[in-house]
Amino acid sequence: MNTARDFIKKLNLNGLDGFIVSSPSNLFYLTQFSNPDAFALVSSYGLTYFTDPRYAQSCKEKFKGLFSVKIISGTLFSSIAKACLESGLKRVGFEERHLPYAEYKKIKEYLKGKTLLVPTYAVIEGLREVKGPKEIIKIKKALEITASAVGFIKDFIRPGIKEIEVAAELERFIRYQGAKSSAFDIIVGSGSNSAYPHHFPTSKKLVDNSNLLIDLGVEYLGYKSDLTRVFFLGKINRLYRRIYALVAKAQDIAIKKIRPGVRAGVIDAASRKYIESKGYGKNFVHCLGHGVGLDIHEMPNISGKSQEILKEGMVFTVEPGIYLPGKFGVRIEDMVLVTKRGCEVLSGAINK
Ligand code: ZN
Ligand code: ZN
Questions:
Q1: Mind listing the pLDDT tens digit for each residue in 34-48?
Q2: Which ligand gives the minimal distance to the CA of 217?
Q3: H helices within the chain, ranges in order?
């Protein structure tokens, strides 16, 4: 696998001769196989995959000739340590955000001081930031399903329907369309509930002359989508119209600044400055966006503090919002792909 080979090359750069992968998303990235109960040891000898007998058959089929697979019925940790010692590895990296302390302690104990475990931060995540053509196809497919879900729900929503019914219908619909599931708990907030950026759907009923915010993502072959659309039932009032226009403009300003070489913080600042200039700075309570791929929130982080430099092939959200507690909230969220000279709004065709 190319990704695994690329990663092996990276190890030396980090002063390591081995690396224990324990994050399911990172493991999927290297092996193209989804398994929540697996580890991999990567070194110049290749990738050794450790899992338990439940996955024996599927691993055998999937990894034929690609990786060495060790099926462990007892503890995985002694087997990982044994493999490190047998290969004579001296400095083995582990993912500090993904290896629980208890598991780290066990592996360390089995290594008996002969191999050093070195904490690392976001090594594989860094590789995942720039998407390859095959990954982009999957993200686009996830967005296609999201788009049809938005079209479907537009005809479904009417006064009297509950927020939880909207969420349930969306979940059912996307699964029928081939998505594995939603990428996160679907957010459906009506009226004042939409002022909570991450509202959890309740049995509140939609009413006439009020708004509805839906934040939806799906998972398709491991890859995620993330999209927010707002709807209005009945006659749109002036304040809502004004806030919607501000958020749409703030998003547009940000999107126009996206291109390779720009610092991510600049994109957030451009959007935020505009909202601040209109007097709603304190109502834009979150950062502008985040990378999306195998995880719903991944690198790059599009926040004011972010020092990351945008690169061609990055995929992230642009989602400014204004939340007026007790009244309503408006967020417009789209996904963009950084291109050679600017960006492509991947979800641009989805009804706004
Ligand atoms: Zn979202
Ligand atoms: Zn998002």
A1: 999 999 999 988 899
A2: 1
A3: 2-13, 24-31, 56-62, 76-86, 101-111, 123-128, 133-156, 163-176, 238-257, 264-277
How far does residue 238's CA lie from ligand 1's centre (Å)?
A: 26
DSSP string for 219-269: EETTEE--EEEEEEESSPPHHHHHHHHHHHHHHHHHHHH--TT-BHHHHHH
Ligand nearest to the CA of 295: 2
Q: How far is the CA of 13 from the centre of ligand 2 (A)?
A: 33
Ligand 2 centre distance from Cα of residue 328 (Å): 19
Write out pLDDT tens, residues 292-319: 999 999 999 999 999 999 999 999 999 9
Q: Sort strands 91-95 and 116-120 into parallel, antiparallel or unpaired.
A: parallel
Task: Give the mean pLDDT of 19-23.
Answer: 97
153-183 pLDDT, tens digit per residue, is 999 999 999 999 999 999 999 999 999 999 9
CA of 303 to the centre of ligand 2 (A): 12
Closest C-alpha among 218, 220, 67, 62 to residue 135: 220
C-alpha of residue 34 to centroid of ligand 2, in Å: 23
* Cα of 59 from ligand 2 centre, angstroms: 33
